[in-house]
Amino acid sequence: MVYFIGAGPGDVDLITVKGRKIVEKADIVIYAGSLVSKEHMDFCKKEVKIYNSAHMTLEEVISVIVKAEVENKITVRLHTGDPSIYGAIKEQMDELGKRNIAYEVVPGVSSFTAAASAIKREFTLPGVSQTVILTRIEGRTPVPENEDIEKLASIGASMAIFLSVGMIEKVVEKLKKGYKRNVPIAIIERASWEDERSIIGTLEDITDKVKKAGITKCAQILVGDFIDSNYSKSLLYDKNFTHMYREGKKK
């Protein structure tokens, strides 16, 4: 059996209880060594075989899994954050499907939610934004034309931009054209790790702040009015609001 598990954004304790229990019984662990904390390996049994996928090709990963299946072993494919977001798991699952190898996906905490926690913000504020867009700028991996950051920013929703801080000038240029105003923006480097850093600014000054801090990778870009704005309180806890669990007080 193969398990694709989200290890979380960095902090070793942000893996799910289910994910940790499977890691503890795994015979084989293939982990994304460039991003996943090695501390997860401390929870493995002594006889586990560990592979760092940072040095492996897709074919090599599948070869290890196939061999483990023949030997009736449990394989854990440990991905950073949540494996469904920029996890490159579809191509792996397709290869397993071709070989009739059973697998399961265990979700994890994404870096975009860890980043919001780091700056103590809520993406979905009443009267401000009820939509969160997860995206990235085009680099060596292209982005569909209709998903260009400028077009997405024109919606005015909260945004979490992955894998793009190394091109911060280009990101900011597109955001300015899209939002058409000076909105708040935050850069969170290595969210939930011990050396986490956060910078909050606006589209006008964030590029200089990022360059001064020397942040070039492993950072989330969060942008939108949710970072700094007035908002309406939730009706859920309004004393005058009635719902199926509570009768509201009459005004």
In short:
It is built from 7 helices and 10 strands. It has 251 residues and is of the alpha/beta class. The chain folds into 2 domains: 2-106, Cobalt-precorrin-4 Transmethylase, domain 1; 111-227, 2-Layer Sandwich (Methyltransferase, Cobalt-precorrin-4 Transmethylase, Domain 2), CATH 3.30.950.
Would you write up a description of this structure?
This protein has 251 residues and is α/β, with parallel strands linked by helices. The protein folds into 2 domains: 2-106, 3-Layer(aba) Sandwich (Cobalt-precorrin-4 Transmethylase, domain 1); 111-227, Methyltransferase, Cobalt-precorrin-4 Transmethylase, Domain 2. It has helices spanning 17-25, 58-70, 90-98, 111-118, 149-153, 168-179, 206-213; strands at residues 2-6, 28-31, 49-52, 75-79, 103-106, 132-136, 158-162, 184-189, 197-202, 219-223. The strands form 2 sheets. Strands 3-2-4-1-5 form a 5-stranded parallel beta sheet, with helices on both faces. It has a 5-stranded mixed beta sheet with strand order 6-7-10-8-9, with helices on both faces. Strand 8 and strand 9 form a beta hairpin. It holds the Pfam family TP_methylase. InterPro entries: 4pyrrol_Mease, 4pyrrol_Methylase_sf, 4pyrrole_Mease_sub1, 4pyrrole_Mease_sub2, Cbl_synth_CobM/CibF, Siro_Cobalamin_biosynth, Uropor_MeTrfase_CS. One of its GO terms (biological process) is methylation.
